[in-house]
Design a protein that fits this description.
22 strands; Rossmann fold; 4 domains; alpha+beta
C-alpha cells in the first residue's frame, strides 16, 4: 500500500490532468448525443457520469473530510451539495460540468502557482553537489556538504562554485545571472568574493571557503523562496472569512428561494430545481481563488526580476507603503571609495602622479589608499623607507626622492564632499587626488521613478550634514537625516509611523537591521551576501540594481489592484447568476457553465500578472 501511495503522490498531477481530459471527452459525448437525439443508444448510461466520477467524487470526499475532520465549511461543501442535487434532478450533464470546470480551475490555480515557483526549482538545481578540495598540491573530489570553513577549493571553467568564498589565486569572469538576474558576467580577481551557485566561466581559480554549504547564499535564497507561503496576507484571511460567510448565505438563499418558489407555484420539484441551481451558481469558488492566485503570480513575477518576497503579507505591506527610506552607504552609493578627480599642479602628468601615489600606498589598508591603488593602471615604483605621519599621511622614498601622500596642507574646504589627498615631492605639491563614495548607477532615475509613483524618498546616513546634503541634492531627495546611529534610524522610522506614514526601509548591512525590523516593510539590498537580509527583512533584492526598487512597488500595487478586481468580478458574477437562477433564466446546466467560467476568468486574470512589465 505504501508503494501505491508513493506512486500516486508522484504522479497525482499527471493523473488529475488525464482525468480532466477523459471527463471532457465524456461531457462532449453526452452533449453530442443529447443534441443529436442518439442518447437512447447507450440506454440509461450518460457519458457525463465519467466526469461525475473522475472529477466529482474527489470534491465530495474532500468536502466530507473537511466537515467531519476539520469542522470546516468550505466552497467544496456547496459544490458537493450542488452535485448531489443535480444528480437527484437527473441533470447528469450539469453535475459533471460543475465538477469538470471546478477541476479545471484547480489545475489553472496550481499552474499559476507552479509558474510562480519555477525560480525555486531553478535555484535548487543550481545547488552544487561536489567540490574539488585542494590540499598539498592535489585535488580530491568531496561532497559540497563536506566543505569546512577555510578549506581551499579548486573551481575549473564551466563549474559551479560550491560554497561562498574568496578568490586566493587566479582571475575569471563569473556568471551570476541565475542568482542576481545580471546578464553580464562579472570579472573576479584575487581577493574578490564569490557566491555559491554561480558559474566560473573561464580559467581555474582557487577559493577559500568563507561559509559552509548549508549556510551559503544559495541555500539561504532557497529557504527564503520556500517560505513565501508561510504567512498569509490579511486580504487572504479576509477573503477566506468572507467565503465562509458566503457559503452560509448561499445555503440560506437556496433554501429560502426553493421554499418560496415551490409554495408559490405548488410545485415542490420546481422549487427544488431552483434551489439546486442557486447552489450551483452561488459557490464562492472564484472568490476563494481571486486572492491566492494573484499573490502567487505577483511574487513569482518579482522573483524573476531578482526580488524575493517572503510572504503575501509582505507583498501587501509593500503595496501600502507611502515612503521609501534608504540607508545611504551601500544602498544609494557604492559603499566604496573611488577616485573622482585628479588635479596636476606641476609638470607631472596625471598617470605619473597616480603611479607615484600608488607606489607609496601599495601596502596600506586605508580606504583612501585602496582607492588610489585600484585607480592606478600603470604598475608601481619600488618604494622604500615608509614612515607613517600621524594624522597627515605617509612618507616614502622613491627614485631617490622623498614623497609624501596625505592630507592637503592648506586644509581648503571642499564643496563636493570629497576627501582630498595631496601628493608632495618635498615641500612642492605635485597634485591633488579627490576621492569619495560614488552614487550608484540609476540612483537618480530610481528616486525620480519613486516620486512619480507618489512615494516619498528619504535618506538616512551616519555621514556628516555636508556630505549628506550633497548626496541628497545629487539624487533629488528633499528629506534626509545625517549623523544617524543605527538606533537613530530606528527611532526616526518609529516616529514617522506614529504620524501615520507607512515606511518601506531599504538597507544593506548589519547597521540597518534595527531599522529593517522596525519598518512597516523591510527590504534588504544585495541580500545574497548579507545574513541580515534574511533575518531582518521581509523582502530581499538579491542584486545591487536600484531599478528593482520602483519595480517592486509597481508589481506589489498591481497585485493588490488585481486582487480587488478579481474579488469584485467574482462577486458580480455570483449575484447576477443567483438572480438569473431564481427567476428561472438559468437552469442547472447553464448556471454551472456561467458560474465556473467566472472561476476560470479569475484564475486567468491572476495568471496574466506573471507577464506584467514595468
Amino acid at each position: 500500500m505504501a508503494k501505491i501511495s508513493d506512486w500516486y503522490e508522484e504522479h497525482s498531477d499527471r493523473l488529475r490532468l488525464i482525468f480532466v481530459l477523459v471527463s471532457g471527452i465524456g461531457l462532449a459525448a453526452s452533449l453530442f448525443l443529447g443534441w443529436t437525439g442518439y442518447a437512447a443508444l447507450l440506454g440509461r448510461f450518460d457519458p457525463a457520469w465519467v466526469a461525475i466520477v473522475l472529477c466529482g467524487v474527489p470534491i465530495v470526499l474532500g468536502a466530507i473530510v473537511g466537515v467531519v475532520k476539520d469542522h470546516d465549511i468550505t466552497a467544496d461543501v456547496l459544490v458537493a451539495l450542488a452535485l448531489i442535487g443535480s444528480l437527484i434532478l437527473r441533470e447528469f450533464f450539469a453535475a459533471g460540468e460543475v465538477a469538470f470546470i471546478m477541476q479545471i480551475g484547480s489545475i489553472l490555480e496550481d499552474f499559476t502557482s507552479g509558474r510562480a515557483r519555477q525560480g525555486i526549482s531553478k535555484l535548487i538545481t543550481l545547488s552544487p553537489r561536489k567540490a574539488n578540495l585542494f590540499a598539498d598540491g592535489t585535488v580530491k573530489v568531496i561532497g559540497a556538504d563536506e566543505v569546512r570553513l577555510g578549506d581551499i577549493l579548486q573551481v575549473r571553467a564551466g563549474e559551479s562554485i560550491p560554497v561562498d568564498g574568496k578568490i586566493i589565486e587566479g582571475s575569471t569572469s563569473v556568471d551570476q545571472s541565475a542568482m542576481t538576474g545580471e546578464s553580464v558576467p562579472l570579472e573576479k580577481h584575487a581577493g574578490d568574493l564569490v557566491i555559491s551557485g554561480t558559474i566560473n566561466q573561464n580559467g581555474v581559480i582557487l577559493i577559500e571557503a568563507t561559509k559552509t554549504a548549508g549556510d551559503s547564499s544559495l541555500q539561504r535564497m532557497i529557504a527564503l523562496a520556500q517560505s513565501t507561503d508561510a504567512q498569509k496576507a490579511k486580504i487572504v484571511r479576509k477573503a477566506n472569512m468572507w467565503a465562509a460567510w458566503l457559503v452560509v448565505i448561499s445555503l440560506t438563499t437556496a433554501i429560502v428561494a426553493g421554499v418560496i418558489i415551490g409554495r408559490a407555484n405548488g410545485d415542490f420539484w420546481l422549487g427544488f430545481t431552483r434551489a439546486v441551481t442557486v447552489l450551483v451558481v452561488f459557490c464562492p469558488c472564484a472568490f476563494v481563488l481571486a486572492t491566492p492566485t494573484a499573490i502567487s503570480a505577483g511574487i513569482g513575477n518579482a522573483s524573476r526580476h531578482g526580488v524575493l518576497i517572503q510572504s503575501g503579507e509582505a507583498l501587501e505591506r509593500i503595496a501600502a507603503a507611502n515612503s521609501a527610506v534608504f540607508d545611504k552607504t551601500g544602498t544609494l552609493t557604492n559603499g566604496k571609495m573611488s577616485v573622482v578627480k585628479v588635479e596636476t599642479l606641476s609638470d607631472v602628468d596625471e598617470a605619473e602622479l597616480i603611479k607615484i601615489a600608488a607606489s607609496g600606498e601599495a601596502l596600506s589598508n586605508h580606504p583612501l589608499a585602496k582607492a588610489i591603488v585600484a585607480y592606478n593602471k600603470n604598475g608601481v615604483y619600488e618604494a622604500e623607507k615608509h614612515t607613517t605621519l600621524a594624522g597627515s599621511g605617509i612618507e616614502f622614498t622613491c627614485n631617490g626622492k622623498i614623497y609624501t601622500v596625505g592630507k592637503v596642507r592648506d586644509n581648503q574646504a571642499v564643496q563636493d564632499g570629497s576627501s582630498r589627498v595631496g601628493v608632495y615631492c618635498g615641500p612642492e605639491l605635485l597634485g591633488i587626488i579627490s576621492i569619495r563614495d560614488t552614487i550608484k548607477e540609476n540612483a537618480r532615475e530610481t528616486i525620480a521613478a519613486l516620486k512619480s509613483q507618489g512615494i516619498r524618498p528619504v535618506m538616512l546616513t551616519g555621514d556628516n550634514g555636508q556630505t549628506a546634503r550633497l548626496v541628497a541634492g545629487q539624487l533629488g531627495i528633499e528629506d534626509f537625516v545625517a549623523e544617524c546611529s543605527p538606533e537613530d534610524k530606528m527611532h526616526y522610522i518609529r516616529a514617522q509611523e506614529a504620524q501615520g506614514n507607512k515606511i518601506a526601509m531599504f538597507g544593506d548591512g548589519v547597521n540597518d537591521s534595527l531599522a529593517l525590523r522596525s519598518a512597516f516593510a523591510g527590504i534588504a539590498m544585495g541580500g545574497i551576501g548579507s545574513d541580515v537580509a534574511i533575518e531582518s527583512a521581509e523582502a530581499v533584492i538579491v542584486h545591487d540594481n536600484l531599478d528593482a526598487v520602483p519595480y517592486l512597488f509597481m508589481i506589489a500595487r498591481k497585485t493588490q489592484k488585481r486582487i480587488t478586481f478579481n474579488l469584485c468580478l467574482s462577486m458580480v458574477l455570483n449575484f447576477v447568476a443567483v438572480a438569473l437562477a431564481i427567476t428561472g433564466v438559468l437552469n442547472a446546466v447553464w448556471g454551472a457553465l456561467f458560474h465556473n467560467c467566472g472561476s476560470v476568468l479569475v484564475v486567468i486574470s491572476a495568471f496574466l500578472l506573471l507577464f506584467t512589465k514595468a
